[in-house]
Design a protein that fits this description.
10 helices; alpha+beta; five-stranded antiparallel beta sheet
Length: 460
């Protein structure tokens, strides 16, 4: 018999235990071999390898499904301190405005507010009905169903974050909510572009078109780059969209790297990264100088810790800037052949965790090819740490805006490094909620747009 009674318990024969263990080892090795074959694009053992990969990815898929259904909490785990709430500090004297996107913990939805920084008063707010805007996609027969499903769940009104809003003529507002959406002063949809997933920055060029990072679908690359199993590969691209919402130009970063002989930066560093770019800012040059041409783009590529100077007109990489910053966001063009970089300074640990350090603002001189830091001591004194997201904006007078995106905190310094004011997005429940890439409005065009907004009829 296979089982013998011993003191009230069943005893298993040793040969059976060894047989089960041996079969388990053989099965594990075989299963791993099939998964490896599928990942490497081999077809010899299909469809068995395909099914093996599906089984192997099941825990990840279940985790993603759980996140889509239950990841409703947007309140932040980190808190700068209960004494920080709303605007604190000294208001500005010159005419200057803040355009801020934030998750309103009381409304339980995202809002965009235009704040007069001379008195910290909200002079207008936008609260688009994102659910209704999302439902309009259903009427588009060509839209990808997976895109639509995720839009309706993860980017619903109660959980979406409005990305990097831009104030336009007549009080209209442009922003990202996975698609690029333009609404009127009163929140009515004017147009939206959902050709691909839009993320992170929105910037306008000299011709009035908009540059946005997008995630390509379908992918433009081939199996030599990411194999046949590419579902989790993220292929970022630069995209130009007209003032009426039409796609004008798209170029994949994978193609830019390949066509400029930079492939080894993606595949020659000892491991394969399914998100090798993580493009988070596109800054177009608005004029020609000794260091760039009008229409050139400066790209912040986080996962390469790289700023790329790219010329779309010739598909040419002019320059690659690396060193002295890690996992950066937000590149801006300054006068005198300089650029500013928001350095998250987030190094990766042995376990692939991002290690929080004091964030920095770096200045790079394209002529001398040297870095310098801007107001380092001020950021250190205020413990400015943001491992992901975050941005900075240096004004012509030397003032500096820094955003701790995930900590829901804005800090505004004068040119000497003195903290002039700060804002913490705290709700009445005492929790701090995130913000999403604010702008300081001070240029003539910005002030004209504010004036036309205030002169128009009220919506409510």
């Amino acid at each position: 018999p296979l089982f013998k009674r011993s003191r009230g318990h069943r005893k298993v024969e040793m040969w059976l235990v060894c047989l089960i263990m041996s079969l388990g080892v053989v099965f594990t090795i075989g299963f791993g071999f099939l998964v490896g074959q599928e990942l490497r694009g081999k077809t010899r053992f299909q469809p068995f390898s395909t099914y093996a990969l599906l089984i192997a990815e099941l825990p990840l898929k279940l985790k993603q499904a759980y996140a889509q259904v239950f990841r409703l909490e947007l309140a932040l785990p980190s808190d700068p301190g209960s004494e920080f709430e709303g605007f604190q500090g000294k208001s500005n004297t010159a005419e200057i405005y803040l355009l801020q996107s934030r998750y309103d913990g009381d409304r339980k939805e995202s809002v965009v507010e235009l704040v007069d920084l001379r008195n910290f008063q909200i002079i207008h707010h936008w609260n688009p009905d994102l659910d209704s805007i999302n439902k309009m996609m259903v009427e588009t027969p060509t839209i990808d169903q997976q895109f639509l499903d995720e839009q309706m769940v993860n980017f619903a009104d109660y959980r979406a974050m409005i990305w990097h809003p831009m104030l336009l003529e007549n009080g209209s507002l442009l922003y990202g909510n996975r698609s690029l959406q333009k609404i009127s002063k009163c929140g009515d949809l004017i147009w939206q572009n959902f050709d691909d997933v839009v993320h992170h920055s929105i910037e306008k060029d000299v011709d009035g078109n908009f540059w946005v990072p997008v995630q390509m679908s379908p992918l433009t690359g081939n199996a030599k780059v990411f194999g046949r199993n590419y579902q989790d590969f993220t292929e970022d691209a630069v995209r130009q969209i007209s003032s009426t919402g039409k796609t004008i130009f798209t170029k994949s970063l994978l193609e830019i790297f390949q066509e400029n002989d930079l492939d080894l930066m993606l595949t020659g560093r000892g491991h394969f990264n399914k998100d090798p770019f993580h493009l988070n800012d596109i800054q177009p040059a608005l004029e020609t100088t000794e260091n760039w041409l009008q229409g050139d783009l400066f790209l912040s590529i986080r996962d390469q810790s790289m700023i790329m100077h790219y010329r779309p007109s010739t598909n040419e990489v002019i320059n690659i800037i690396e060193g002295s910053f890690v996992h950066q966001h937000d590149v801006d063009l300054l006068s005198g052949g300089r650029i500013s970089i928001f350095d998250n300074n987030a190094r990766v640990s042995f376990t692939n965790d991002l290690l929080p350090e004091i964030s920095k603002v770096k200045i790079y001189n394209l002529e001398t090819k040297k870095f310098s830091s801007y107001l380092d001591n001020a950021l250190a004194d205020d413990n400015v740490q943001t491992t992901i997201h975050g941005r900075s904006q240096i004004l012509p007078n030397g003032d500096l805006l820094v955003e701790q995106t995930q900590s829901g905190r804005l800090l505004y310094y004068n040119s000497l490094g003195s903290l002039q004011w700060q804002h913490v997005n705290r709700a009445s429940d005492g929790r701090v909620y995130p913000i999403r890439w604010s702008r300081i409005l001070y240029k003539t065009d910005d002030l004209d747009n504010v004036a036309s907004l205030l002169a128009a009829e009220r919506c409510y």
